[in-house]
Amino acid sequence: MSFRYQVHFTRDLFAPGNTLLRDVAAEPDKGPKKMLLIVDRGVYRHHPRVLVQAEEYARRHRDAVTLAARPVVVEGGETAKNDPTWIEIVHKAVEKAGLCRHSYVAAVGGGAVIDMAGFAAATAHRGIRLIRIPTTVLAQADAAIGVKNGVNAFGKKNFIGTFAPPWAVLNDFNFLSTLSSRDWIAGVAEAVKVALVKDADFFGFIERHAGPLSQRDSCAMRHVIYRCAALHLEHIAGGGDPFELGCSRPLDFGHWSAHKLEQLTGYRLNHGEAVAIGIALDTIYAYREGLLPEKDFNRILDVLRNLGFSLYVPELDASVLGGLQEFREHLGGRLTIMLLSGIGKPMEVHKVDEKGVLKCIEWLKNREDKNATFIEQKSRMPQIQGVKGEAVVKLRRVFDNAVDGI
Amino acid sequence: MSFRYQVHFTRDLFAPGNTLLRDVAAEPDKGPKKMLLIVDRGVYRHHPRVLVQAEEYARRHRDAVTLAARPVVVEGGETAKNDPTWIEIVHKAVEKAGLCRHSYVAAVGGGAVIDMAGFAAATAHRGIRLIRIPTTVLAQADAAIGVKNGVNAFGKKNFIGTFAPPWAVLNDFNFLSTLSSRDWIAGVAEAVKVALVKDADFFGFIERHAGPLSQRDSCAMRHVIYRCAALHLEHIAGGGDPFELGCSRPLDFGHWSAHKLEQLTGYRLNHGEAVAIGIALDTIYAYREGLLPEKDFNRILDVLRNLGFSLYVPELDASVLGGLQEFREHLGGRLTIMLLSGIGKPMEVHKVDEKGVLKCIEWLKNREDKNATFIEQKSRMPQIQGVKGEAVVKLRRVFDNAVDGI
After folding, report:
1. Is ipTM > 0.90 here?
2. Measuring CA to CA, which residue among A156, A204, A49 is closest to residue B95?
């Protein structure tokens, strides 16, 4: 069995003349396809016209797609994944709207809403087609690209979920303009991660544009999202284990502590912020263990700081070590942690020296004050304006056409 | 991607010397594998030693398998699928026992418990290996063989579920001895169904042995289960659409009304009893529409009656027509109903004449009294004792070896 899904980049997805959504949903000779929209409350707050626009869009393209019910607005952020009521609300809406396996659930929102709505769609009638419309940097670059969904339970991230390839992923860059500064930069942590395990050149790009990225340079950000999404897709298509039957999960570099930190901070840290700390922790550990050269160690920590990430929180203490066991249990089999022997050079280890990790935490704690000063200095530095290069030009062409698959 | 799972037939699965379970679970060089047993309350009631036996079994084979927690006893029958608390209980047990994706959930029970526990296993950590140990005729012959799981919601059968191939299916014939007469015969309805759409010879076997089957001839029953399971497996492996992406589901012959009838009777009818009525209804309909010859029509209704099925309940009225729409919604796309143009000769139709169906219901209602007499007469007829033939001999060899794959 193989599977196939489309990933598109666009702007103004619900503009009447943008045919992307209708083209993705329409089936020849099948009449209008039923669709149920699930919308993140955060998106609705910042784009209050989105529901009306979507309804107008469906009216305009009523030969191809029909909204089977009024859009359902759900809580955004981890609340969507922590409270099982939201799954029930989506299931109920699917049932009431009379959706079938050939209908669509379209989830518009951040990674958490897409994960939750995706789980609800995957389990209603044993799987309704899911169109993901991610609206944050993190979701567009990472969370919405893959074949997974999930919700949290028993204080554990993604304890409940399935593997279910989406029907399509539609990235609308316009949604990014209203993100908070925290949400804007948080997603870049996943880009740093994928660059570190997959693509040293891409790491160089992020390194050179850390300033602009932290200053909301949207052109640099579009390139980061595009490249990050492409690397994720390549991994899924070429990695050989999309449904994670083995023990290895290279894209979860930095995540064993990140998932635990999110939970320990009661989700005060968002996923990207936790991943930045997780990357820092495993970077320091690899350096201390003599696996990673000092130069690379410095470059990685510098990039994280220059992007504006804080690399320490008071909850970062011995309790985070519980994340190792939870990580192993979630994936199964032998403990397999990805570390780095260089930028773009991942390596697997099956044993982690817990005392060594505690020393790394101590080091991060001691550096905390210095980091604050460091970030302040950086923000006074002149910024590199604009981004050039082939990839960005290619991306522009994509926007002109409004539609493109990766 | 392909998938593979084993189906075995045995007796006394938890007998210390029966190595089937350990062989299925063990992995070379991986040490003892964690297993969590979920046991149907009905099984526990009739086999109160089963929990102790399982624990002794695990102690005896502790180099290969270890019970990660005490077995969890859950409610049997549709209650297991109607009350979402049971899923939560299984999830919680998985979490507490620290199972990982390479561990096992082993579900011992009827089709409902296996469906529910299978859903819980498929969604914990995005999928823990599931070993199905079905204990009823229906579950061994049909429900536990396939790649589906599910629970009921909003009054709809299997509204929530996933497609998830099991790790293995272990059929222990000994469990059948304590079934009630209703549960004993109910499962044969699914065998009649699969014979009608797949195998006219097998239908002939059931026809010839309807008396012995209804009189608890276990040798005839073992052949029915074995052949029914084999036909289901062949369909899944060779049918081309194991995950039902299309609109057609030939093995759901007779099921559009059966699922609705179960719900309309508040699950007073069990699944097999409802399927028997569903088969009768679609058989009469096909005959009335001129699709099915009278001779076949008579043979099918005779078999159902000779097995002891009642083919009418007061809830069988116009409300059952709602099942057509629910059936279409569940599968998706165009309405596709399987009818027969002969025994072993299925044909798809995409339109059902609702008035015609109501006439068939009327006909079944009018025949109700006569049927009662008919069954009474049959039960006074001399019974054919014993079963001979190559297939049964082959099956006996299987039992001698305790283990065999299909």
Report:
1. no
2. A156
